[in-house]
Design goal:
115 residues, alpha+beta, Hypothetical Protein Aq_1857, Chain: A, 6-stranded mixed β-sheet, 3-stranded mixed β-sheet
């Protein structure tokens, strides 16, 4: 990941391709975006949540990287500053994952972390 010029949320090229594919398959229009959030739970205490949404809430933080709109609530953003959304289709795990510089540890499944 490149050094961040500002506090944001980023998306890798592979994740961008997968998001665009899912948008097309789901027939979502350009009013939709990727909502990233952090919720309590998981084996390390916090878990990532990823959804498609089309409603911006008053406390949302809105970012755009590589033409993909990424939205998170303010509380989640405190955990996600400078995190990159990535996608892997390899044998060691397929799906979206998060490269989070704020996580002090994460579990083996990659879906849970602690700060």
């Amino acid at each position: 990941m490149e050094t961040a010029l500002e506090n944001s949320i980023y998306i890798s090229d592979k994740a961008k391709e997968k998001v665009e594919q899912l948008f097309k398959e789901s027939e979502l229009d350009d009013t939709h975006f990727v909502r990233v959030s952090v919720v309590g739970g998981g084996c390390s205490g916090l878990s990532y949540k990823l959804d498609f949404d089309n409603e911006i809430k008053p406390i949302d933080q809105v970012f755009e990287d590589k033409g993909i709109k990424l939205v998170t609530d303010l509380k989640s953003f405190l955990y996600l500053v400078n995190t990159e959304l990535d996608f892997s289709d390899g044998l060691n795990g397929k799906g979206f994952n998060f490269v989070n510089p704020n996580a002090s540890r994460s579990c083996g499944c990659g879906e849970s972390f602690a700060v």
